[in-house]
Amino acid sequence: MAYEEKRAWALAIIAVVGYAVYVLLVLGRADGRPLAEVPYAGAMLWTIGLGIVAGIVSGIWFGIAARDDGLQSDERDREIGRFGEHIGQSFVAIGGVSAMALAMVEAAHFWIANVLYLCFVLSAVLGSMAKISAYRRGME
Amino acid sequence: MKPTKVTNSIRALRFAHGEMKQADLAQAIGVTRQTLIAIEQGKYSPSLEVAFKIARVFQVSLEEVFQYPEEETA
């Protein structure tokens, strides 16, 4: 498996696990209250921060594991990388527009922050899935 | 994504050139072994530059390495 394909798998898994942990933490704190009143900022910042750290650590780990394999990325990896980013980018735009709409209707900060976080996660997962699919099935 | 329609004879050319290993050819043309495998299997069309490098390694013309079938007209 190519170094960049391993990284795509790692980023998808980290994004899903991080978001699942965040959702469980927030729901655990709800305790019958409306969700918009649940303290979420700490859990969100920690899961995002740890996700970034885990992404960097996994990249270093795969790099060390493949240190004897010579070249680790080339034109195909860059092409697939751009393709994945392109797919993922659409969800960043959807998140931005959704957050803007929620702000306009003066929704609670909870919902604005959460729609942004969800779309970042979907962007990372969809982008990674697109890369993995391109690695597995090929691209023209 | 659909696999490419371009076919190639890289595998045959490697065997004709002293059973050259994929890793050696990949190193010679500056791509990863996984990319060379993808090219051989028709899952990836390389850039023109890489295509020329492959042809140069085997000292053959580009069309002896890569083939593109004629489109069927309706």
Write a short abstract of this structure:
The complex is a heterodimer of chains A (140) and B (74). Chain A contains four helices and no strands.
Architecture overview:
- The complex is a heterodimer of chains A (140) and B (74).
- By secondary structure, chain A is mainly α.
- Chain A has one domain.
- Helices cover 80% and strands 0% of the residues of chain A.
- The model of chain A has no long low-confidence stretch (mean pLDDT 92).
- Chain B has 74 residues and is mainly alpha-helical.
- Chain B has one domain: 434 Repressor (Amino-terminal Domain), CATH 1.10.260.
- Chain B has five helices and two strands, in the order E-H-H-H-H-H-E.
- Chain B has a two-stranded antiparallel sheet.
- In chain B, helix 2 crosses helix 3.
- Chain B starts with 6 loop residues before the first strand and ends in a 7-residue tail after the last strand.
- The mean pLDDT of chain B is 89.
What is the assigned CATH homologous superfamily of chain B? lambda repressor-like DNA-binding domains
Estimate the strand proportion of chain A. under 5%
Largest sheet of chain B: 2 strands, antiparallel
How many separate structural domains of chain A?
A: 1
